[in-house]
């Protein structure tokens, strides 16, 4: 299947692998380009993008790149490369912005990972192809794509609440919001053709926007 992978998806995967490997072996590099609230607020805005190409370890990297491989092909295939890139980098930005907003009073909060961008691509692909089914390594039966998407979002909310690891769980949520909104802007007809799926995916986002602050308590 690697022969048919979209060139933009392949390029982003390679970039993530190379940059992450550099970060694995060079802490000063990781420290210079990771997401950190105080540094971003002091003017280092580039961290909002560079942090999306760094990962904490090989498992973190592999999970994100496998998800991008699966879902990026759907988005790039349906919407073509330029729109895929808009969704990917737009979701990366919204993920960082939401993370910055959520952790703005925690100057030393830091995180890395492509999860915000990948979350946006996942949400976008489910909107575009709501009937998809996924076979995951540890589950022998197909899982509806929208179930996976909502479960992924709920896990991110749990991870954000428990502050699990050096992973940008808040960025997952912001990225999902970005992918959801950007896809509907690019393909507004989805609101009428996939109304039920739009509502299902919108519910956890709306609830998060309303009650998100309570996750800190």
UniProtKB/TrEMBL annotation:
<feature type="transmembrane region" description="Helical">
    <location>
        <begin position="58"/>
        <end position="79"/>
    </location>
</feature>
<feature type="transmembrane region" description="Helical">
    <location>
        <begin position="108"/>
        <end position="129"/>
    </location>
</feature>
<dbReference type="InterPro" id="IPR022764">
    <property type="entry name" value="Peptidase_S54_rhomboid_dom"/>
</dbReference>
<feature type="transmembrane region" description="Helical">
    <location>
        <begin position="6"/>
        <end position="24"/>
    </location>
</feature>
<dbReference type="Pfam" id="PF01694">
    <property type="entry name" value="Rhomboid"/>
</dbReference>
<keyword id="KW-0645">Protease</keyword>
<keyword id="KW-0812">Transmembrane</keyword>
<feature type="transmembrane region" description="Helical">
    <location>
        <begin position="135"/>
        <end position="155"/>
    </location>
</feature>
<dbReference type="GO" id="GO:0008233">
    <property type="term" value="F:peptidase activity"/>
</dbReference>
<dbReference type="InterPro" id="IPR050925">
    <property type="entry name" value="Rhomboid_protease_S54"/>
</dbReference>
<keyword id="KW-0378">Hydrolase</keyword>
<keyword id="KW-1133">Transmembrane helix</keyword>
<protein>
    <submittedName>
        <fullName>Rhomboid family intramembrane serine protease</fullName>
    </submittedName>
</protein>
<dbReference type="InterPro" id="IPR035952">
    <property type="entry name" value="Rhomboid-like_sf"/>
</dbReference>
<comment type="similarity">
    <text>Belongs to the peptidase S54 family.</text>
</comment>
<feature type="domain" description="Peptidase S54 rhomboid">
    <location>
        <begin position="43"/>
        <end position="188"/>
    </location>
</feature>
<keyword id="KW-0472">Membrane</keyword>
<feature type="transmembrane region" description="Helical">
    <location>
        <begin position="167"/>
        <end position="187"/>
    </location>
</feature>
<dbReference type="GO" id="GO:0006508">
    <property type="term" value="P:proteolysis"/>
</dbReference>
<feature type="transmembrane region" description="Helical">
    <location>
        <begin position="193"/>
        <end position="211"/>
    </location>
</feature>
């Amino acid at each position: 299947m690697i022969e048919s992978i979209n060139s933009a998806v392949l390029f982003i995967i390679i970039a993530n692998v190379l940059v992450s490997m550099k970060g694995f072996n060079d802490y000063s590099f990781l420290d210079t380009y990771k997401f950190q609230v105080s540094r971003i607020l002091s003017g280092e805005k580039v961290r909002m993008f560079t942090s999306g190409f760094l990962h904490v370890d090989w498992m973190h990297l592999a999970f994100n790149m496998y998800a991008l491989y699966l879902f990026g092909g759907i988005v790039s295939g349906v919407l073509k490369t330029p729109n895929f890139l808009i969704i990917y980098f737009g979701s990366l930005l919204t993920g960082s912005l939401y993370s910055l907003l959520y952790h703005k009073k925690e100057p030393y909060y830091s995180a890395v990972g492509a999860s915000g961008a990948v979350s946006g691509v996942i949400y976008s692909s489910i909107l575009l192809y709501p009937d998809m089914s996924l076979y995951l390594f540890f589950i022998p039966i197909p899982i509806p794509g929208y179930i996976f998407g909502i479960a992924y979002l709920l896990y991110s909310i749990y991870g954000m609440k428990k502050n699990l690891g050096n992973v940008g769980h808040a960025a997952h949520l912001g990225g999902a919001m970005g992918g959801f909104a950007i896809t509907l802007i690019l393909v507004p007809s989805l609101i009428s053709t996939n109304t039920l799926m739009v509502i299902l995916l919108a519910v956890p986002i709306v609830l998060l926007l309303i009650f998100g602050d309570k996750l800190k308590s």
